[in-house]
Amino acid sequence: MKLKEEVILITGGASGLGHALVERFVAEGAKVAVLDKCADRLQQLESDHGEDVVCIVGDVRSMEDQKLAASRCIAKFGRIDTLIPNAAIWDYNTALVDLPEDSIDKAFDEVFQINVKGYILAVKACLPALVASRGSVICTISNAGFYPNGGGPLYTATKHAVVGL
Q1: CA nearest neighbour of 133 among 42, 52, 70, 44
Q2: Catalytic residue flag (residue 155)
Q3: What is the rounded (10 degree) CA torsion for 32, 141, 67, 58?
Q4: pLDDT tens, position by position, 43-71
């Protein structure tokens, strides 16, 4: 069954799960906007899918980049029906005992800024469009949001935080 021109905005859509989501939505007939930091992979998505995608190079930690993604999606496709905050980084299953004391602040800030703040900013930037379309937000989480062994303590804490959102 084909979707009727649903418009989806996905963060982190140039690789991993996000890329698989882009491929599937386009195959089902949707139009997809992608916010990602990797210009080369975004260029490949545009090359592969032409007018069915619009790609925005940016950082999910930036409200301005999130707003740019929302506005470019709306300019190209007229609305946003579904937002999928997906961009995230993993902590390589690093146990607390193995985290150097002098690295905890930097690692914590980076993982939480991308994995949690990036989701909050995406929703905030897309909120007016989602209200107008009566749209949906689907947050990708991973098993780490429900079980304590899906990553190290930093990654697992961010995924539990997204469950709380």
Answers
A1: 70
A2: yes
A3: -80
A4: 999 999 999 999 999 999 999 999 999 99
